[in-house]
Amino acid sequence: MQRKTTLPPLTIRGYTIPYPIVQGGMGVGISWDELAGTVSHEGGLGVISAVGTGYYQNFAFVEKFAKNRPFEPQNFYSKTALIEIFKNARARCGDAPLGANVLYAINDYGRVVHDACVAGANIIITGAGLPTDMPEFTSDFPDVALVPIVSSARALRILCKRWNGRYKRIPDAVVVEGPLSGGHQGVMYEDCFKPEYQLESVFPEVVKEAKNWGNIPLLAAGGIWDRADIDRFMDMGASGVQMATRFLGTHECDAKYYAKLMPTISKDDITLVKSPVGYPARAIMHGVLQRLQEGTAPKIACVSHCVQPCQRGVQAKIVGYCIADRLGDGALGDATNGLYFTGANGYRIDKIVSVKDIMNELICD
Ligand SMILES: Cc1cc2nc3c(=O)[nH]c(=O)nc-3n(C[C@H](O)[C@H](O)[C@H](O)COP(=O)(O)O)c2cc1C
Fold it and tell me: What's the predicted TM-score (pTM) here?
């Protein structure tokens, strides 16, 4: 038996998470009931992605389709599916704290945040934009903790000023995300490579800014891989970390195709691409991204109206793919048309393990 060292618990608005490890939300269909429920059961914070819940259980909760896709946001972000996902996650983790990830850039953001509260989320995490009005949508649920994701001290300052002025509230915790993370990035393409935008540079600045607003717990995210990484950021003032890519290499990852894909990729297969959401996104050169290079990508026809910046397919046509359909195909395990996000460390997954294995490795000396 390995000796357990003292990783302190993480407390967010009165919720105690035994180990300060948050599993980052991953949509579409990557962190749903199985992954998030298991992480919470193992003492971390499991985070259910509220993105594309219409794809849950092969569209079981979708009421209206067009071209075989969930029609409009009310079907793409299905409330009944989200409630079912939470119910099934709770069957794994009982009363342990459970989070929901809701992207700010989505259509129906406020409705989906409210749905997540109704479904039983204790903590809501929002990135892909600065959620200046987030507290409005949880006013019926005063116990729900609100956790925005920021990529700079300036973003935190703007958000705290706004929330404090309008709602007399400051974030219950903040995720500070650097550009080694998976999926959408918080900074422009060129900035992803500059030293001053890396997590190591940004994190201390955010620590300083957070001190102006009381004791906000800060979670470091983007490229955290092992215990040494966790210790390094805890020493810099983090109360915990948010990790996602490592959980792509687990049996419990809800998008099962990742278990096949991850052990086969190399560093060169990981790339930053343009996305209809308007931010660069880190993904694997596989599926639709290969089709794009070959000029054989599927036609674009907006059905789900998923994110506001895409303007019903205008941006999708510019970048060459529909993000809802292609991430949805990824959740369905379509090797030809799926879009597969990863963090910069994705190539380090060489075998599939259990969530328990990862948690044990991270919490032990
Ligand atoms: C496959 C994948 C999908 C992701 N999807 C989302 C998402 O839907 N919403 C979000 O806020 N972050 C998303 N992220 C970012 C993660 O939640 C997390 O903050 C980040 O990836 C942490 O860096 P790491 O992957 O190096 O551990 C995604 C990351 C990955 C790898």
Answer: 0.98
